[in-house]
Amino acid sequence: MYLDIYSGSATSASSPSMLSFTIRSFISKSKSKSKSNLPSRRYSLSHLIPLCSTSSPSSISPDLPTMSTSHNGSNQITPQPQPQPQPFQVAKRLEKFKTTIFTQMSLLAAQYGAINLGQGFPNFDGPEFVKEAAIEAIRDGKNQYARGYGIPDLNITIADRFRKDTGLEVDPEKEIIVTTGCTEAIAATMLGLINHGDEVIVFSPCYDSYLATLSMAGAKVKGVTLRPPEFSVPIEELKSVISKNTRAVLINTPHNPTGKVFTREELNAIASICIDNDVLVFSDEVYDKLVYDVDHISIASLPGMFERTVTMNSLGKTFSLTGWKIGWAIAPPHLSWGIKQAHSFLTFATATPLQWASVAALRAPDSYFVELKRDYMAKRAILVEGLKDVGFEVFSPSGTYFVVVDHTPFGHEDDIAFCEYLIKEVGVVAIPTSVFYLNPEEGKNLVRFAFCKDEATLRAAIERMKDKLNRK
Ligand SMILES: Cc1ncc(COP(=O)(O)O)c(C=O)c1O
Fold first, then answer.
1. Which atom of ligand 1 is nearest to the CA of 322?
2. Name one Pfam family in it (predicted).
């Protein structure tokens, strides 16, 4: 397996035809990058990074053939004894971000046949009525570019749902932008509203795309850490990091990876700090329907907050369709304009038939959401109780489909060492949480398990851990 560093896609280059396809597509991409520093007439397979390791170019097998373009322009494969690896090229703004831990762990999981409780996607399918709506939309020819900020029916449906959930009345035309997943809503918000040098406050640990998109926007990131066991918001610390340069506070409730749901008191305190200091709030609420013992509150619904809040959400978690990547941002017109501009030049529009199917999804009866919550509560109970039985200190989540545990009773050096041991020796995948922290040291005692898996899978993972996980 190789990673094409330009497309980021995984490729099997094991057969000759695949190999030449890989080389061809690689060359055409390279050629189109006229400003790159790559030599214009010689290309090496060493630009393909073996995915099974985090290797540098020097670890690439020297006996791989390299590609040359002959004088008459035809492509030939000729053996080159000494390939000259080129340094990987990445703009400074992304230099410090590595292959995501989720990709690395999923690859290790496949390699060791481990049960994957790492990456946060369900191992069951989304609802039939939503899939049928997508198929129908494709058959009906709803297949060309959609309107940039969303098909009108979807914007109206999102506004209806937001009213139902929060009591807020929003203008579907001026205050909603449909995006390619919440990930694009996050990127468009940062790129559309943040200027170079603006300060943005982030609660650590946090979802990995925040720091990368803030870096792309040129923001200065300030972190405030949420600490176990409650992961409460340290309000005084938040006050102390706000400055005259603070443009926004980025929150995520329910929170990945901790499963914490921000309380009304915490949200009121954040709101009043932001109002007093004229600071915006970017609120990522992708797990809003996955709350168990408490209610989810959108900070936009608090007094004086709608006009300074961007609420971001998506379909993936609520409808077990994480691959569809339908998301949205809701904001008052003076903020939605910047987001719309960034979105126009990032993706312009999002998959038309899936937008039609999203209309069907978001109009689901209340019973759908009740059942979803009930199913997830059962899964949470299996995993939380199971992990306690195994011997972890478990921080039971009030929301999301994640559980964070303290692994230190098992005596491993840190979260990464523990996760490697867990995959290789026990056959279960968890995610080390240090990757979610601005200061990785703060997360080294914790790992995250996901319970968006069928019950048999959860029970099997628990059994493996009970059987094989030993204290050092
Ligand atoms: C907190 C958080 N925000 C956003 C996303 C991405 O959402 P989407 O798949 O809709 O882009 C995720 C996905 O795991 C997430 O955990």
1. 9
2. Aminotran_1_2
User: 85, 46 in Cβ contact below 8 A?
Assistant: yes
For a substitution probing ligand 1, which of 261, 286, 347 has the most ligand atoms within 8 Å of its CB? 286
Q: What is the pLDDT of residue 154?
A: 98
Q: Ligand 1: which atom is nearest the Cα of residue 256? A: 1
| 12 has a pLDDT exceeding 60 | no
Indicate yes or no: pTM above 0.85. Answer: no
Spatial distance between the Cα atoms of 458 and 297, rounded to a whole number of angstroms? 29
* Top mutation candidate among 251, 317, 451 for ligand 1, by most atoms within 8 Å of CB: 317
Cis check for the bond before 127: say yes or no (omega within 30 of 0).
no
Q: What is the pLDDT of residues 231-287, one digit of tens each?
A: 999 999 999 999 999 999 999 999 999 999 999 999 999 999 999 999 999 999 999
Q: Among residues 358, 382, 357, 374, which one has the least CA distance to residue 449? A: 382
CB-based pocket (< 6 A), ligand 1: 120, 181-183, 207, 252, 256, 284, 286, 314, 316, 322, 325, 327
CA-to-CA separations, 298 to 22, 161, 162, 169, 453, in angstroms, rounded: 47, 13, 10, 13, 27
Task: Say how many Å lie between the CA of residue 101 and the centre of ligand 1.
Answer: 15
Pairwise CA distance, residues 19 & 118, whole Å:
31
CA angle (194 as vertex; 340, 153 as ends), nearest 5: 20
What mean pLDDT comes out for the span 376-386? 98
Quickly state the pLDDT bin for 87 (edges 50, 70, 90).
confident
Examine the pLDDT at 147 and tell me if it is beyond 60.
yes
